[in-house]
Amino acid sequence: MKKKLTKEENSWIFYDWANSAYSIIISTAVFPLFYKEAATNAGISSVNSTAYLGYTIAISTFILAMLGPVLGTIADYDGLKKKFFTFFFALGVSFTALLAFIPTTQWWLLLMCYTVAAIGSAGANIFYDAFLVDVTTDERMNTISARGFGFGYIGSTIPFIMSIAIILASQNDLLPFSTTTASKLSFIITALWWGIFTIPLLKNIRQRYYIEREPRPIMNSFIRLSKTFKEIRNYRPLFLFLLAYFFYIDGVGTIITMSTAYGTDLGLSATSLLVILFVTQVVAAPFSILYGRLSEIFTGKKMLYVGITVYIFVCIYAFFIESTIDFWILAMLVASSQGGIQALSRSYFAKLVPKENSNEFFGFYNIFGKFASIMGPLLVGITAQMTGSSNYGVFSLVILFIIGMVILSFVPENE
């Protein structure tokens, strides 16, 4: 692989740099802690507030799972991919900023706004992922996809540091406003960071593979979608990969999105959680790029096995967690594999799909991933409420990783 990246590859990678600020600050770190405090002040128990967050994530992913394949099929027409991307990107940025203006007494309204922001972020990611086939070649996909995740982790640390600094300064009376206001400022920082650094993608990337426009595009899109759905089982490698992905990515997404709520239930302070999450981002960056490099030596499939095995150990270890040191160990294990497993899954799938139908097939990729993301948070929420312990909820995710690994073994190597 030649070392120099093209303008299109760099612009595509830079969106991970932009959007990852949302992933760490809104999905993982500041907002869950902000919401947990608001819910606690409203008299909601810690177990129930964690469960409500899980249900909210499930609702937002269900909505997008329903829309993804339909919108992806329509977006395969010439010139529509970027328009759909821009709409969902704008939706996500707008509602992320809006979180800063909702009163903390309205914890349920915070969850509703978070739902729309999540739909915007995840919706934009459908078309962003599908752009991978437009910006690079099959031979470079593993490396470019992994580098995107790596730069995403690096880029997310900058607004994260800014947000943590403001929050800690307000907690120590170094700034003339409350911690609540400081958290709200972090939402504004996220929206600005996400918006500004998406400009290269909007400016430099175009849809190279597409279907020519035709009369009644919406009706014909539904016809094509129906035909693909009926025939998807004929794409045996693709179908098996999606089935494996459905299970193992469920556990990955659930652990990422609910990690801070889990840490709070274990009694870790907000400050400790923020520091741990920052270090996790820093450690995850080189490991993501390393996964891409190693995939060129050992193949992407073998590296996916490695990532899944690490996550199985994470779930088992989480069951016995008791201290802050245990949570540190858990976070570092997650950091070693979360970017790599997502990056290689994306590039593995991109190599399997017909390029002119990339949006349509990434819509299916999304629906498998999003339906899986419904099951995981629901499983954690229900198990936590039934047992009265979040540890059992995380441990229950082991079965998903095992099933995913077994099915993945039947997928032929695409290298």
Structure summarized in a few sentences:
The protein has 415 residues and is mainly alpha-helical. 80% of the residues lie in helices and 0% in strands. The mean pLDDT is 83.
Summarize the structure in words.
The chain is an all-alpha fold. The protein has one domain (7-205, 216-408): Growth Hormone, Chain: A (Up-down Bundle), CATH 1.20.1250.20. The protein is built from 18 helices and no strands. It has helices spanning 7-28, 30-41, 46-75, 80-98, 107-130, 132-135, 141-171, 179-196, 199-204, 217-231, 236-265, 270-298, 300-319, 324-335, 338-352, 358-387, 390-395, 398-408. The radius of gyration is 20 Å and the shape is globular. The two termini are 14 Å apart.
Distance from N terminus to C terminus (CA atoms, Å) equals 14 Å
Return the structural class.
mainly alpha
How helix-rich are the residues, as a percent range?
Answer: over 70%
Unreliably modeled segments: none
SSE order, one letter for each helix or strand: HHHHHHHHHHHHHHHHHH
CATH architecture: Up-down Bundle
- Structurally, how many domains make up the residues? 1
The CATH topology, please?
Answer: Growth Hormone, Chain: A
Largest sheet: none
Overall number of strands = 0
Oligomeric state of this protein: single chain
CATH superfamily: MFS general substrate transporter like domains
The radius of gyration is: 20 Å
Shape: globular
